[in-house]
Amino acid sequence: MSDRSSSDKEKLEPAVVRAGIVVVLGTIMAILDTTIVAVALDTLSKDFNVSIATIQWVTTGYLLALAVVIPVTGWAIHRLGAKPLYILSLVLFLLGSALCGCAWSATSLIVFRILQGIGGGMLLPVGQTIMARTTGPQRMGKVMGIIGVPTLLGPILGPVIGGAIITNVSWRWIFFVNIPIGIVALVLAIKFLKSSERDKDHRFDLVGFLCLSPGLALIVYGLSEVGNQGGFSDAKVQWSLSIGVILTVLFVWRSLRAPEPLMDMRLFKNRTFSISSICIFLTGMTLYGTMFLLPLYYQIVRGDSPWIAGLMMAPQGIGAALVMRWSGTIADRRGARAVVPFGMALLALGTLVYTQVSATSNYTVLGCALFVRGIGLGFGMMPVFAASYRELSHEAVPRATTAMNILRQVGGSLGVAIFAVVLQSQITSNVPGATSGLGSIMGTHLPPSELEKIATSFATSFWWSFGVCALAILPALFLPKAVSPEKEVLQVRAATT
């Protein structure tokens, strides 16, 4: 009897599967567009006759839009309902994609990317909320393992798909490719997603929004300008980060006192949620920070094209996809503590290989190391997201989703900024004549001795990524164990009350 009960518990109802398909389609579009444009920046700067510093706002504008819109999502889910908000997000993303493909100047493209980012920024948190409400907390590990595949595959496949499109057709198809996928997701969302009750009693925390969203935007802007200005010494960077931090601190103060805060900081009183938040923040740092370093290493040191560099990052996505669903199922049965520390250790092990890179490192060894990193991400990322929901009530899920996505976004931005500064300072000190870091060596032919020095600079930068991975093991050891049947009944009752 217990075996049948366990088997029934593991099966996903058709409604859950249909909702998962809709969420995956939307998620993969939003995640892909965070990286797919990276390999097109040089082409865009030539077509529009603007500098790389200007065209980089095609990426930065999208990320800023993501950071600004995420805090609004939790309130909007209560006010509009998850289904209408998800449909609205898809429409905005599709409209932004179509306009980006028709852009006639760099300025128009940047503006349309911001519109696209507003829609894309809501797709992931709203999708996670839909799945959390549809499945309940006890099967979130398995479900997050399914819908989490795009989250890890997006940053890996983005450069590969972008390189293939640029090589064979116009750059405009980087944006047009979203349209057929988005239309399918829109039709399925209207047909399959269930409507939820709206709660119009919730008030919008305008003061919190005026503190948090500009604060996050200024932090992301300051971090993005670090690479352009050559470090943290630039006044623009310092003012942006300082004001951003002050506004964020003011938001925390406000959130702890407001009756209905935009981002509920009181969630962090829950021990499991707080520990999961630390793990997600550190995972975001190493995921996006390392994704910044890898293509640069392959293109600068090894002389590979964007297409080849993108392919060399594929083993990480493959490794993650292979274990993602399995890790979620194990986490549901044995608890996140049985899975996540192991995943973080594998993540650190795979990164350790890259701390020894040279100008002639074996491609097979590097590919295997990245495959191990992918397995580590598969075991370490989505079970943490599932654990963060485990002890929360049904009403707290939207607020928790908002907080988790903000933490991952900020963690990723901080990781990219720190690793970029480390890499730039290492190249400047190791390579004579590279006074402006990467900017002075991109697109140039360097002798083997210089390439070896640059490879050493990358190796030092990868040590920072390794440190973040190793640090993430510590909080993972305090994640929850498996829940007893008696406690599971109590949690289900609390979650559905």
Structural account:
- This protein has about 500 residues and is an all-alpha fold.
- It folds into three domains: about 15-200, Up-down Bundle (Growth Hormone, Chain: A); about 205-260; about 270-495, Up-down Bundle (Growth Hormone, Chain: A).
- The chain is about 75% helix and about 0% strand.
- The protein contains 22 helices and no strands.
- The model is unreliable at about 1-10 and about 485-495 (pLDDT under 50).
- Keywords: Cell membrane, Membrane, Transmembrane, Transmembrane helix, Transport.
- InterPro entries: EmrB-like, MFS, MFS_dom, MFS_trans_sf.
- It is found in: Cell membrane.
In short:
Its main location: membrane. The chain is mainly alpha-helical and 497 residues long.
Write the layout of secondary structure elements.
Elements: H1 2-10, H2 14-32, H3 41-47, H4 52-55, H5 57-80, H6 82-101, H7 106-135, H8 140-147, H9 149-168, H10 173-176, H11 178-192, H12 206-229, H13 235-255, H14 271-301, H15 306-312, H16 314-334, H17 340-354, H18 363-380, H19 382-389, H20 397-430, H21 448-476, H22 485-496
Helix pairs in contact: 2-7, 2-9, 2-11, 5-6, 5-7, 5-12, 5-20, 6-7, 6-11, 7-8, 7-20, 8-16, 8-19, 9-15, 9-16, 12-13, 12-20, 14-15, 14-19, 14-20, 14-21, 16-18, 16-19, 17-18, 17-21, 20-21
Keywords: Cell membrane, Membrane, Transmembrane, Transmembrane helix, Transport
Subcellular location: Cell membrane
Membrane topology: Multi-pass membrane protein
